[in-house]
Model the fold of this input.
Amino acid sequence: MNRRDMAEIQFREALRAAMVEEMERDEDVFLMGEEVAEYNGAYKVSEGMLDQFGPKRVIDTPISENGFSGLGIGAAMMGLRPIVEFMTWNFTFVAFDQIVSNAAKMRYMSGGQLKVPIVFRGGNGAAGQLAATHNNSTEAFYTNVPGLKVIAPSNPDDAKGLLKAAIRDDDPVLFMESELMFGMKGEVSDDEDYILPIGKARVAREGDDVTFVAHSKSYWLAMEAAEELAKQGYEATVIDPRTLRPFDTETVLESVKKTNRLVIIDECSPYGGIASEVAFRIQQQAFDHLDAPIARVTAKDTPAPYAKNLIEAWMPTVDEAIAAAKKVMYVD
Amino acid sequence: MANETKKAPRKRAAKGKSTPPDTTSDAKKPNGQLPTEPPKGTPDDADFRFYTKGGHTHESLGLSEDDLVGMYRSMMLQRRFEERAAQMYGRQKISGFLHLYIGQEAVSTGTVQALQPADPIITAYRDHGLGLARGMTANECMAELFGKIDGSSRGKGGSMHFFDVEHHFYGGHGIVGGQIPVAVGLGFAAKYKETGNVAVGFFGDGAINQGAFHEAANLASLYDIPVLLCCENNAYGMGTSVERSTAQPELYKKAYAYDMTGAVVNGMDVFEVYYAMSELAKQAREQNRPALVDIRTYRYRGHSMSDPQKYRTKEEMESKKNEDPIIRLKSYIVDQGFSDNEALDGIDEEVKQVVLESVEFAENSPFPPVETMYEDVYVQDDYPFIV
Ligand SMILES: Cc1ncc(C[n+]2csc(CCOP(=O)(O)OP(=O)(O)O)c2C)c(N)n1
Done:
């Protein structure tokens, strides 16, 4: 892409641009959630949208996640296209029933009579010393549910293109934004109607020695590890899957066939996390190409602690990623 | 919508418009006599309505002879369908849970008669009656119970998940209380699109204790949504009576907490249900206001087919059977001279035949081909499932 065609904006601005463009295009799209309207969004993602679209389409809700996510699902069943913002995905556990029992399964149980074109979005993942209830990477819970699509972009450009795609998608889409990335700046396409395909990974860096797979905030950790490894003479491929369900296995497979080594970095808990699924798929489909057991770098297998040193040790780190890469390359 | 006017005064309808009292207002027992006037100490701004039995004639309701006979036919179809379904369950043609609606037919029938065809309806897992009343065919319903490809959900829903979107019936939901916020969403969309429709969400007395109900009621009132939150109060959630599960067993009173109309309706009298739902739907349509409707009804059968019903007495059951909604309507039709017992029994025979044929239809319909397992998960048809 021609660099001059791109403007540098924040992650939150990219999300907002996607929503604004889709709401301008389609009257049936509306936004609801806690503090999205008069307060301009808890993370200012929806700043100015109430002024532009009015209270019919930018709607403040009570702190009532089960209620308003269910309301959105009912509205979607009637043909509207709601965007439901969760302040963060940590709070979706009280809406879990609506997302899992209703949004995901309505179409199936009605034998295809219904569709539920809804987007649930909000901040996800660990965000520092917030302790256990506020540091959850929820993607593994939701990718476990057939009927849902799960997207977790790592930069403003992907965020915009994929959120627009999510809003237009006729199935329920869960859109997970890293809480620590809302202020991150990046170049975003100026294309009139910029849509990225759901289910297509992005190869961010190419190298022959090892493959990193990492989404959302972990992607940046992988990139940092790759830079450091390069200084030491090892070249890594870094793949950002962007969409976690459906997952672009093909792109990872191709890379592993070249590098023969795989490290997955993922902020979820290790038990049944995203890394577990990716590792399974690759060992199953490329066993003969692997020169070492697949490694994963994840959050530790405990609730998130509060103390500074503990939370730092709990999160996946660049050093762990480098160590894992060296282990699968059998160096050191 | 929300926040437009921060504290908009609710447009309450005039109070006290209800049927003549037929009992005193001592209403400790939810399924005893219905209250006819607000209990002592009710705040002045509470809008409670009491729809007790026997207050109406077909003329006062504007119902024609044909309407009455049609309602009789609908109730008879629901009952015969379920009796046959129970039998087929016994023969293991039907599996899973089977929650019968027998005894509650006046609720579905009176409601459907009172609504416009495009008003969306949603309910819990005790859904056969509403589905049939809303226009689902016995064939597609029975085939669904049998798990066959010609079932309404292609064999993927079963008893608890009937859907008929063409007739604006939005299911059939298995998680207690989970459909209530969705009902509010159906009403939200009606208002958003200015269709003039009213959404009607049914749930049981057990479901009213779920947080989902309270969140949904708050949102419905806060956003001025045209939705009737209808509790089919059959006195029990499985084996637990309302008194044992609910701190305030006069469920209609919960409406006051959400600043909406609270109505209590005799659900064994189809005229009363029709009257209440017509009036409340009209109010919801005109004012975009929700209401909580506490419909006192009774199920003669167990909670599901596996329920030995040890929690209630024979006497209670027998006394309730005297209120059978179908017998009540039948007597009315005969008393008015619109039809005679023979003709009405003829209708019964006719629907029995329809149901018998539905069994044959279900038997003959094939099981869903295994490939169909992967259909209807996503609208997107090239989804890469793990296989
Ligand atoms: C969330 C949830 N908890 C428990 C159940 C199991 N369950 C199914 S029906 C039922 C009783 C509900 O009673 P009520 O709401 O009064 O409806 P009714 O069966 O009387 O029509 C229970 C406990 C469930 N399906 N969902």
